[in-house]
Design goal:
Helix content is about 30%, strand content about 20%. It is of the alpha+beta class. It has a domain of about 50 residues. The N and C termini lie far apart (about 30 Å).
């Protein structure tokens, strides 16, 4: 499955790691010591989030692409 959800990636001084959030999937986030590790980890978490939602019979949001924040 191709990942098409928007990712928000930032450095956290407090955690001393990169944090990746997936705004379209509530609570879906991961971290990593490097940028690439964080992205790889969130790809795994996205698959787990979707599998869990399917198992619970919950809706899975379609990727909307770029989100706009004000």
């Amino acid at each position: 499955m191709s990942i098409r959800y928007e990712l928000i990636i930032y450095w956290s001084e407090e955690d001393d790691s990169f944090i990746v959030e997936v705004p379209e999937l509530p609570g879906c986030m991961a971290d990593g010591q490097t940028y690439q590790e964080a992205v790889n980890n969130v790809e795994t978490v996205i698959h787990e989030w979707i599998d869990t939602a399917k198992a619970l019979g919950r809706p899975i949001p379609s990727p909307k692409g770029r989100l706009m924040y004000a």
